[in-house]
């Protein structure tokens, strides 16, 4: 009885054809693992965590009531209501996040707006939603007297609504 040149695993003897197939499968496995490792390089995901949302409503636009919205995310991405995006600088983000963290929300919210809301005569109301450690804080210009020179409004107005950033 002639034995095939082969390789034995326990009582099982493998011929050269089986060995070739196993080598091809092993080579394919190595290639697949190598390609998978390329995808394992960490990618910094976009942050969907909002830091501030600023909404302006009121006034007359051709299609009806004017509305605009900006969402500022913790990664510095600023998304507009019209699907535009831009990136705020790290310095701008540091200033905004510091202003939000150190704001005296009780004092800010304690100043009621006492005039007539600008939406009553073709003007706009600004509504800020700040995501704070204590939860969301909503400040609307027709219910709270907002001082635009006070933080965090000064930084938001400069970097989000203005040309800074």
Short description:
The chain has helices at 16-39, 90-102, 105-109, 153-161; strands at residues 7-9, 12-14, 50-61, 64-73, 77-80, 85-87, 125-132, 135-140. It is of the alpha+beta class. A six-stranded antiparallel β-sheet has the order 6-5-4-3-7-8. Strands 1-2 form a two-stranded antiparallel sheet.
Mind explaining what this structure looks like?
This protein has 165 residues and is of the alpha+beta class. Residues 25-46 have low confidence and may be disordered. It has 4 helices and 8 strands; from the N terminus they run ββαββββααββα. The radius of gyration is 31 Å and the shape is globular. It has 2 domains: 7-39; 50-161, no CATH class. It has a 6-stranded antiparallel sheet with strand order 6-5-4-3-7-8.
How are the SSEs ordered, and which strands pair?
Elements: E1 7-9, E2 12-14, H1 16-39, E3 50-61, E4 64-73, E5 77-80, E6 85-87, H2 90-102, H3 105-109, E7 125-132, E8 135-140, H4 153-161
Antiparallel strand pairs: 1-2, 3-4, 3-7, 4-5, 5-6, 7-8
